[in-house]
């Protein structure tokens, strides 16, 4: 019998299968093992200085912001792209005017500060979406996302940084909020491992948003020294007309001032060569064009936002029963893992990987080694999904672990996937009769 428990973490999900009750003689069952405590990044409070728009006629606001940083991959390799979500659950600023603000007129942008093994900042931006705000009422919570490329192994800390709340109602107004004593407390930490030969090229933006025609500072590092680099805007998977060419310095770095005129530009990439190549490029770095063009008389501007979701998984059940074998003969105790459904609704460039590792099977008569459990993975992709699921290789699972299924990185990824496996435990012929229990842990990143 296999017993399953689930523990979750925002953007990182772990399912624990207790593969138990392999009945060799006399029957019997084993109670489900206690689930491990959930892991989570920490919300933090930090002092913030917010400057209301001059038209409000009120002084700066010194208050406290509550925020949390989460990532889609807490254990990346050097060269991987990590998606960062900066959620402000309690802004320090509020509606500065005696006028109710309608829904979906706020566009937040900001920065996440990196520390530890890697320094710098991640530009993040959120959709134009909010609940109505009463006159002089508190701004509602909001989330912003962005990406960064891992360039150094080790522990990388992430702390909330400055943010700006742009409102588009009657007029275009900004409420910038800065961290009073930077850096703010650490909210999330990722642990990166080395990956020899990985593409370490990376870019960062001076700001996460701007009006049409404004220039954004693009800083690149770890490109080929003295190489020509194309810096270009992206609208989804397509390049926009916002483009320029620069030459890197003797250390492979560059600073470009890219004029962003195309209102559909949603990100910026940089690459060596005649066309985009993920092995010779970096990005996309998130960028939002705030269209402040007033509509013509007698017309109305209609805005629609597509909100990013999460990477998650669910399981069809929490019990798997393996077939029994006879004392003196041994052989394969077989079964099927409960079906796992993976939903990737993040809307970014990152794929996912579902891996598993198993403990030894223990019982009153001794133990059966973890290396005796093997599987044959299978997965299917729901029609219309941008990504295609790839099953892992058949073979031993063991305590070191193996891949059950995955999807690759790409320009646009996501979708819904069904994952399963045939499992087989090789039981030695003269294993003492009784019930044996192991724990198979699946991790989705």
From TrEMBL:
InterPro entries per UniProt: TAT_signal
Alphabetical keyword list: Signal
Position of the signal peptide: 1-31
Superkingdom: Bacteria
Entry annotated with the keyword Signal: yes
Protein name: Beta-xylosidase
Annotated source species: Streptomyces solicathayae
Source species taxonomy: Bacteria, Bacillati, Actinomycetota, Actinomycetes, Kitasatosporales
């Amino acid at each position: 019998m296999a017993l399953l428990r689930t523990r979750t973490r925002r953007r990182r999900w772990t399912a624990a299968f207790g593969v138990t009750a392999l009945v060799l003689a006399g029957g019997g069952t084993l109670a489900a093992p206690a689930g491990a405590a959930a892991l989570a990044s920490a919300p933090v409070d930090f002092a913030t200085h917010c400057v209301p728009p001059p038209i409000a006629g009120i002084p700066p606001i010194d208050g406290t912001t509550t925020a949390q940083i989460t990532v889609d991959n807490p254990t990346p390799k050097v060269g991987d792209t990590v998606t960062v979500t900066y959620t402000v659950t309690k802004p320090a600023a509020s509606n500065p005017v005696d006028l109710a603000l309608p829904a979906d007129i706020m566009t937040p942008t900001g920065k996440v500060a990196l520390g530890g093994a890697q320094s710098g900042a991640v530009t993040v931006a959120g959709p134009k979406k909010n609940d109505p705000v009463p006159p002089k009422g508190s701004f509602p919570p909001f989330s912003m996302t962005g990406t960064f490329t891992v360039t150094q192994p080790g522990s990388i800390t992430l702390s909330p940084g400055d943010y700006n709340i742009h409102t588009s109602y009657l007029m275009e107004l900004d409420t910038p909020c800065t961290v009073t004593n930077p850096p703010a407390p650490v909210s999330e930490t990722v642990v990166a491992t080395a990956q020899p030969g990985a593409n370490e090229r990376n870019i960062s933006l001076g700001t996460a948003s701007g009006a049409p025609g404004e220039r954004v500072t693009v800083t690149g590092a770890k490109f080929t020294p003295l190489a020509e680099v194309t810096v270009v805007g992206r609208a989804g998977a397509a390049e926009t007309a916002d483009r320029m060419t620069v030459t890197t310095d003797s250390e492979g770095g560059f600073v470009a001032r890219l004029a962003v005129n195309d209102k559909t530009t949603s990100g910026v990439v940089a690459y060596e060569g005649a066309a985009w190549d993920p092995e010779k490029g970096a990005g996309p770095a998130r960028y939002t064009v705030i269209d402040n063009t007033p509509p013509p008389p007698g017309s109305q501007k209609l805005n629609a936002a597509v909100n990013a979701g999460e990477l998650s998984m669910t399981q069809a059940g929490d019990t798997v029963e393996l077939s029994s074998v006879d004392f003196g003969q041994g052989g394969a105790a077989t079964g099927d893992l409960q079906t796992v459904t993976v939903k990737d609704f993040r809307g970014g460039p990152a794929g996912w990987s579902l891996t598993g590792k198993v403990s030894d099977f223990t019982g009153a008569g001794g133990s059966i080694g973890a290396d005796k459990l093997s599987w044959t993975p299978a997965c299917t992709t729901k029609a219309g999904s941008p990504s295609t699921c790839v099953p892992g290789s058949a073979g031993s699972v063991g305590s070191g672990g193996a891949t059950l299924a995955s999807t690759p990185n790409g320009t646009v990824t996501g979708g819904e996937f069904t994952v399963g496996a045939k499992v087989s435990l090789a039981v030695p012929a003269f294993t003492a009769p009784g019930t044996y229990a192991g724990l198979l842990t699946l991790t989705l990143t």
